[in-house]
């Protein structure tokens, strides 16, 4: 089990300093990764991502490259939260360290990760979260961190549906490359209409489930998992932007 391999910052976040560091990394990943290893087939709804200000971006997590694909097509430098073990991967684990990703210890309340996520949002920067906390071919129950962070900071939420990432990265001459490419759909932004900065657990779960149903509505039926029955979806805590 990994000890936390690095701490990008403690309680303050300097967007400009990190932006300067990320310029070359974005170019490197774009030129190499998404030219020779991953094929983006289509991107829809990118206009739904606010061009400035704090925002929580959520996505369904199918494969390892999912957050990289969202970050690549985004015109803004999204700050991802990711499992701490991913930063120990040989070679590839260095990329999120250089980018300034927030490592998260799964299975526990990671107070440092929460403070770092709040620091990003309070600096009016975009945060990237996989609400399920793990990869799965269909949606699992969302964790409460999404709702807590968005409510605490008053951040809008933008759902992103991902399809076609299985089998990537791969080489252009492979049979997988000749198959479907990666498709991303950015949904309409919304904000939680909740006054409390610290909602109780029951309310957080309701907010989370309503957000996950929004995400499920952007996915094909076989990807919706525990949120498959859209007739059960409510929007009592959601206000569309």
Cα distance spanning the termini: 42 Å
| CATH arch. level architecture | 3-Layer(aba) Sandwich
How big a fraction of the residues is strand?
A: 15-25%
Task: Estimate nothing, just give the exact number of structural domains.
Answer: 1
**Biggest beta sheet summary:** 7 strands, mixed
CATH topology: Glycerol-3-phosphate (1)-acyltransferase
What is the helix/strand order?
HEEHEHEHEHEHEEHE
Roughly what percent helix?
A: 25-40%
Rg (CA only): 17 Å
CATH class identity: Alpha Beta
Could you give a short description of this structure?
This protein is an alpha/beta fold and 241 residues long.
Report on the architecture of this protein.
- There is one protein chain.
- The chain is an alpha/beta fold.
- It has a single domain, classed as 3-Layer(aba) Sandwich (Glycerol-3-phosphate (1)-acyltransferase).
- The chain is built from seven helices and nine strands; from the N terminus they run αββαβαβαβαβαββαβ.
- The strands form two sheets. A seven-stranded mixed sheet has the order 1-7-6-2-5-3-4, with helices on both faces. The chain has a two-stranded antiparallel ribbon with strand order 8-9.
- Helix 3 links the parallel strand 3 and strand 4.
- Helix 4 runs parallel beside helix 5 and helix 5 crosses helix 7.
- The mean pLDDT is 91.
